[in-house]
Request: fold
Amino acid sequence: MNNKKQLFFDKISIVFNLLCKKDLEYFTKLFLSKESKTSFKHRMIFLKSRWLNKKNPLYPRLFKKEYPHYEFSTLKINGRNIFRDVNEFLDIEIEIFYKRIKAFIDQDIEIKSGINDKLYRYMYVYNINGMKNNDHIDYYEINYEGSRVSNKMDIVVTPPKHKIESLKIDKYYGDIKYEKGKIILQFENGDDYISAIFNTDLISNQTIYLVGIGVGIADINQKIPVAKKVVLTKDLVEDIEYLYFFLNETEIISAKENSYRFKYNDKEFEVSYFEKYIKNIKRLNGLFENLLKLEKYNSFYEQLALKEFSAINNIFQKVKNSRSYYINYRKRVIDVLIKSYSREKYSAIYMVMPISDSDDNIFEQQSSKAILLQNELKELSRKIEIEIVFIVSKNYQFSPEFKIFLSNTKDTIKIYFALKNDIENEVNSIDFLFTNKRNFVVTRFLRINTPTFTLFKDKTTIEEHEAMYRKIINRKCKSNPLFLSI
Reply:
């Protein structure tokens, strides 16, 4: 027998005796090709008669071809394959081969019995409802009782305080199982079921906790499935705040859709679906606010960004409750209004807009975006009626750019002018718009020191602006003002 074949047999012998502990079924499982149509039984007979008895092994051609499909090729030490590829398996010196297999076995023992003989005993979770005695984060306590079969141990689990106090829930019974590259927890009682999975590929002597995914029931009364991040530890965690980076309100998914009525064209379903993601925004905002309290982000640069997100969250909470909300930019209002025509199907837009040296006149801007907006509004005016009343001061000088806009749209958009001094004391706003559908009004009130617009949906405010619009139209200039020449 040549040296290469002998080296191959020696390595196979190490795997069988040291790793598999002469368990032929486990050995067969490791070297059964996923691509092969051979039955497990026939493969086991073949390996025993050919490889283990050192008779005519399929080496090296077929072994090289099939090696990537063996389960053995996926075994890892600290996240890396024991052997890089089939060539390293075949060519590496027997002493190094032995050390690699021994290192994998030591790691496996370490995982199964716990580093330094300490088992994982606590699974930390985030409770969305919170408690009086902690900051939402609580833990299940794992007690190892009963039998241990191979890689599986029976466990009795004490529920977290929030479940004991609010739900009067009993202890759980189940098992913890150590498989290739993962730890799986499963436990249940008469009311609840929980499972969790953790990756152990990168476990080492420095590993003090494992982050995984847990699946269970959010509320045992509602029976809503929920998935969230969980943390497995060997000792109680002193710095609970540190766990908040992993366990918080944003790391939760619940299957509440089962309570919705699935009608794809039904508006009520669409609103419920929208509210679902508004709630996610609220949770994310809560996370940011807590991070600020923990002083994790201290710079002005970061704090201002988080405060801006808080303002966005505030808008969505108002939308959820059908309340008015503020808008910063006129250009955005008009842009969205134009693009919403295909869905809203309004047939008229009514707009009142002041023009002065201090106001930003989007109809005289010459940027590419401004010109595009002007052209889109002109194109829309060929389909629907658009009326704009510009509120001007008598001595205001119109720019050449604005005159170009007026000239280009005079045949499609109804444009009027009203003098500011004639009407500002008779109305509450000279800067608003609405459509004939009367389902909203965007306005900026006079005599209120704010640069932002507000969107209202209530009938009273909409009717108030319709009345103001009629009053302004009645006070419009009878002809183009003398100060305007096109």
The first strand starts at residue 76 and ends at 77. The CA atoms of residues 215 and 313 lie 28 Å apart. The chain has a mean pLDDT of 83. The chain has 16 helices and 18 strands.
